[in-house]
Write a structure and sequence with these properties.
Length: 612
């Protein structure tokens, strides 16, 4: 129930819809009982029951209002109407009254569902938006430890489960009202028979609640498995070429089969319990009605204290309670599944962002001096990737980081953009610790071109203008020209409006990289970070992209992380890393003359020696 209370905060923007839904549900409940009770006078006419009453009963106050008064007034109405008109005429008016009550009952039901639908869909929209906003606000470190498919499952399937289950509970406004109004009407008819109904409700409630105890835990297991299943599908689609190349189809087929088998078994267990709820509650209801038939029949046939018409009406009312009782039982089970789903969604909503901006964080508006790494140390988990690292990147200079894989080069790019925070030391931007500034303003000063060019399934133009509002066509074309991308873009049928496909699949590797460079140029930041931007390209594409990078880096501060040393020979400073520490610093010529680590790396890259 704790999760359901948290869910209720999403109701506040829709108070109007909620109020109208409650109003129409109240009216529906009233007319549900009234529609069934309206059968009573018709039965009295059909069966010719009731004593003749020629004097209108007096009504002195609410204390006189009882079933006896109602029955006496009906007898008076039937007596006088039958004397003035034929009994068939009276019966027709009774039927018209019944039709009106049933029409109003269903009309108010329709109106309540309409406003609950508005409420339902609005809450679903807001919850989805909150989860999506939270995901975008979480640090990169959060996603490195989670499976993408599982997060997608939490953001889609689990949210839909929350909506359907919790909203089924909110829809239960009408069910208790129907039970209350029906019980009130039944008490008017016969308080003795109503006692049996009061005994039935708690007994069935206990049995049904015991049935649903295991549903929440099993639902949570299913949601987790479905998240793994989605991850499995996402990995399969992403690696389909590798799977086929290594002829490992059978391995993935068997793995997928194990997932689906486990999900199938759990679904069957929950399905059995859910399926048992409705017939169990109905059987308990029929059991009570059977007892009512025996006890009520004795009041009609033996005790003579209850008329046949009143007894039939009472039985109709008693059976009418079964539907809302079953709905409440189903809602209880749905609530268990909703709680399990909300636990998984709350994992995202409650995730703590250790990189959240401070309340008094400063806003960076420009870059004037230098970026400084001050004796920093950092580790992702247990082992330090960087140890006591210090470096200054002056404005307008190009600083290159080289070294073997795992030496900490890309980690520095992650730290300076504050995807992660250092464990020790500090990184300053114009003398201000980047922990003291807003993350957005920090990243606005930087453009990144990485090894894997992430393009979105949109047009080339929209990929170039990503994050730039009110962009002009000439600026887009100029950015593309700087990135050596304009010529190949113009060869496409729709040119800048041409789609790039999923992940940029409609472009070659070199084309994707040049679009990514154009995107960085379009942002026009004072600082560029190049994280092995050419390492995945062939020699010909590398030459074109390298020219584009050099165009982009003009008059900018650049931090270049390189695997291919041919791309850094013109850097103002080359820093050689090994196991998170600086082993050499200098220009290309200085480092070659030292004949140390850098010179050794150059000699190992035999293909590049002739170019350097």
């Amino acid at each position: 129930m704790k999760n359901f209370k948290r869910f209720l905060k999403y109701l506040s923007p829709y108070k109007k819809h909620q109020a109208l839904a409650i109003l129409f549900n109240v009216l529906y409940a009233v007319f549900s009982s009234l529609s069934m009770f309206s059968l009573f006078p018709m039965l009295k006419v059909l069966f010719g029951e009731g004593e003749k009453v020629y004097e209108k009963p007096s009504f002195l106050g609410f204390k006189d209002f009882s079933f006896s008064y109602i029955e006496e007034y009906l007898n008076y109405f039937i007596t006088t109407s039958s004397n003035e008109r034929e009994p068939l005429f009276v019966l027709i008016w009774m039927v018209v009254f019944i039709l009106i009550t049933f029409f109003l009952k269903n009309f108010f039901s329709f109106m309540s569902i309409v406003y609950m639908t508005y409420l339902n869909n609005g809450i679903l929209k807001d919850l989805r938006q909150d989860v999506y906003n939270k995901v975008l606000g979480l640090p990169v470190s959060f996603f490195s430890g989670e499976r993408k498919g599982d997060l997608m499952s939490r953001m889609t399937t689990d949210i839909n489960t929350i909506k359907s289950s919790f909203m089924s509970v909110l829809m239960m406004i009408r069910e208790p009202l129907i039970i209350v109004t029906t019980l009130f009407t039944m008490i008017l008819l016969s308080w003795k028979l109503t006692i049996f109904v009061f005994l039935f409700i708690p007994i069935s409630g206990i049995l049904i609640s015991r049935l649903g105890k295991s549903i929440k835990s099993q639902s949570g297991n299913i949601f987790a498995l479905e998240g793994e299943l989605l991850s499995n599908i996402e990995e399969t689609l992403g690696g389909i070429r590798i799977i086929k190349n290594f002829t490992s189809e059978n391995y993935f087929i068997n793995s997928f089969k194990n997932f689906t088998t486990n999900i199938n078994n759990l679904n069957n267990k929950i399905g059995i319990r859910l399926s048992l709820a409705s017939p169990l509650s109905e059987f308990l209801g029929i059991l009570v009605i059977s007892v009512l038939l025996i006890f009520g029949g004795s009041l009609v046939l033996v005790d003579k204290s209850l008329s046949g018409g009143a007894f039939i009406t009472f039985m109709g009312l008693a059976y009418q309670i079964l539907t809302p009782a079953k709905a409440i039982a189903k809602a209880n089970h749905a609530l268990q599944g909703g709680n399990a789903a909300y636990d998984r969604v709350a994992f995202i909503l409650d995730a703590v962002n250790p990189l959240k901006d401070k309340l008094d964080a400063k806003v960076i508006k420009d870059f004037n001096s230098e970026i400084s790494f001050n004796n920093i140390s950092f580790k992702y988990k247990d082992d330090y990737v960087l140890k006591n690292f210090s470096l200054k990147v002056p404005k307008g200079k190009t600083v290159a980081l080289v070294g073997e894989s795992g030496s900490g080069k890309s980690t520095l790019a992650n730290l300076v953009t504050r995807f992660y925070d250092v464990n020790e030391g500090s990184i300053t931007f114009d003398g201000v610790d980047i922990k003291e500034v807003t993350t957005k303003s920090l990243r606005q000063q930087m453009g990144i071109v990485a090894q894997d060019s992430i393009l979105f399934n949109d047009t080339i133009q929209n990929n170039i203008t990503l994050g730039v509002e009110n962009s002009k066509e000439e600026d887009i074309i100029n950015a593309a020209k700087i990135a050596n991308a304009h010529n190949f873009i113009m060869e496409f049928p729709k040119q800048y409006d041409n789609p790039v496909g999923d992940g940029g699949g409609m472009l070659s590797g070199g084309q994707k990289q040049r679009v990514a460079i154009a995107r960085a140029v379009m942002k026009n930041p004072p600082i560029m970070i190049l994280d092995e931007a050419t390492s995945a390209l062939d020699t010909e594409s590398e030459k074109v992209v390298q020219d584009a990078l050099e165009n982009m880096m003009k008059n900018r501060t650049s931090l270049v992380i390189a695997h291919r040393l041919s791309t850094v020979k013109n850097a103002d400073l080359i820093v050689v890393l090994r196991k998170g520490e600086i082993v050499e610093k200098g220009t290309h010529e200085e480092l070659i003359s030292k004949k140390g680590t850098y010179a050794n790396l150059v000699s190992l890259q035999s293909l590049e020696v002739g170019q350097i």
